[in-house]
């Protein structure tokens, strides 16, 4: 801001600078005051109109794509419904950038399960045809309150109300009843919770609205409680509305004093939920969303039931929807893989002016422990409109700047008229917001909390080996100006730990399939671990081809070729590779040119030398829980590659007695500049970046 420039806040020492200074041109290091003045002049002279016409650069060449890498680091999740259940639409959603699909069991009846069965098969076909991975989420009904109405399953398998939509006017008197005998009475709605009348008090506000109501349509009404007689609640409508579809009930927050709101006593899983999970236990479900958890015991109950069904690898994600979940957030997060901030329900259970602060605090805490945080309800108006409002676009951008991992689309893809357009719009907004995200500030804030770099620790626990490796990987990538971080992993844990530090470059997580042997049985592991990383911000998982590792050991080269084809890398870039080599954790800085040159120079010879022994050994594990990928010893040649020299001797060009050097014989410009001093540019970068701490 102009105030910061003119007031000189934090500028007197010549080192502190605004976040955007580092992103003008190639400025990525600490600036002196003179440099700051020059950057300021450069920034102010840049016409703002150029922002509207700027395009991302991409590689020109034989192996380059026609368009640049189009995915955002922030992941997108679509909820399937009647508008997004066909193979064709699912293919379009996958190509647009959807990383996960949510099956919502709120309409949890056996008849509706037929619709989900067909959609699941369509999704598998779409994934096969597009050659894209997609994680599968199952959302339970749980403690959801709704009005019992007459429904029937349509020809497409989706349930719809048999009754005509109910129109209510402002000031109209209606009744909410817990007695089944009142179901057919005029202006009376039956609630699915028999003790709902005990939750309400005279003067309370209750929200009745269509499930996944957008807020921009007249499908929700607020009512004030006037009188409670037996199991019948007399209410007065505060606004006009047309109630259609599945109408949910939410008892809004009672006071602004911080007092915990009254919660229903329904179980965390209904009987229909349990039957649905049994039906899906034979499928590869990656995540189960737990609605309305109050404490860690709720999460543990679902976890135990999944284990009982044999769904040991399915992970639990808790939905934060009530004030009770906020009070128990720390313990809920501790036993969950991640959380979903259900902003619609949560916003009604707290003073609306505190919703922004709550969202930022929840995301911050998830970021600090390295667990995914997902938000909902972002572009509701795109259910019926091809373009979101400016407020919605800003809301999406702010969520990205807060640090959210993924965005969950609900009504936009379930019953919306523009499901694919919604995905593309949110993706584009996320990409623009990511360009101005302060990665450096996020990294330093975690380092400060851990007591690194001279800071007093905010927590008393020392940094673990995995945390040290993850933070060092990000630091090395930043200091060497690497274009990508490449992680080899088995369980996906280390890739998530690297993503916790929010590097400015994408993380390609290569999962090497492993053969788990137990007695006479065996299991091929890796696919589910790769899919479960699809909802982690900045992580792009990919399965390695077992044939490649067994035949030639060129997993690194294949990963780099894939990244170039996707527009993630250029041929002059550097890649920071983190892997386990012969039992040791290693961070390597690899030149794309060098890695590609290896394949042409000596790939055949080295592949034959190591294929039959080391590669096979690395792909077989006996009950291992190693979080780092163990690679074939032939992978060593991707980091310190042997090439045939002109004199016929086999020599490592990166370890030839003269320090680190790239494979190419012609030195680069930065090498020429430092040749006189005998200092090697790559080694210098490593000294400054990786070992400085």
Name its key features:
693 residues, alpha/beta, eight-stranded parallel beta barrel, seven-stranded mixed barrel, 25 helices, 37% helix, disordered N terminus
Explained architecture:
The structure is a single chain. With 693 residues, this protein is of the alpha/beta class. 37% of the residues lie in helices and 20% in strands. The chain has 25 helices and 29 strands. The model is unreliable at 1-30, 56-67 and 599-693 (pLDDT under 50).
Could you give the order of strands across the largest sheet? 1-2-3-15-16-17-18-19
Alpha-beta classification: alpha/beta
> In percent, how much strand structure appears in the residues?
15-25%
Main beta sheet strand tally, sense and closure: 8 strands, parallel, barrel
* Percent helix: 25-40%
Low-confidence spans? 1-30, 56-67, 599-693
Mean pLDDT: 76
List the helices and strands and how they pair.
Blueprint: H1 2-7, H2 33-45, H3 50-53, E1 75-79, H4 87-96, E2 98-104, H5 110-130, E3 135-139, E4 145-148, E5 151-153, E6 159-161, E7 166-168, E8 173-177, E9 188-191, H6 196-199, E10 205-210, E11 220-229, E12 232-237, E13 241-243, E14 247-251, H7 271-280, E15 287-290, H8 296-308, E16 315-320, H9 323-327, H10 329-335, E17 338-341, H11 343-348, H12 355-369, E18 373-376, H13 390-402, E19 406-409, H14 411-414, H15 419-435, H16 439-450, H17 465-479, E20 484-489, H18 493-500, E21 507-511, E22 514-518, E23 521-525, H19 527-532, E24 539-543, H20 546-551, H21 555-565, E25 574-581, E26 584-591, H22 592-618, E27 620-621, H23 636-639, E28 643-644, E29 650-651, H24 669-675, H25 681-689
Parallel strand pairs: 1-2, 1-19, 2-3, 3-15, 8-9, 15-16, 16-17, 17-18, 18-19, 20-21, 20-25, 21-24, 22-27
Antiparallel strand pairs: 4-9, 4-14, 5-6, 7-13, 8-12, 10-11, 10-14, 11-12, 22-23, 25-26, 28-29
